[in-house]
Amino acid sequence: MFRQLGRTEKTRFINENIDYASEEAVAGYVERYPLGVFEYLPSTSLMARILKMRGFQVIEPDYGTASD
Fold this sequence. Notes:
Shape: elongated
Distance between the termini: 56 Å
Helix content: 40-55%
Structural class: mainly alpha
């Protein structure tokens, strides 16, 4: 039944039942929809750490200050 749900319905179901999910199930979902998951992280540090662990080079943005 779960496989028949659309992405929004799957997301809603997972959010409501996340405490019952195994780490493997959560990882499988995150693998398919990483940007959707990262959108809800409080900072980008976790995403940067994961990417670095996977061998990617991560360059932190320099937002600086806007000058007119």
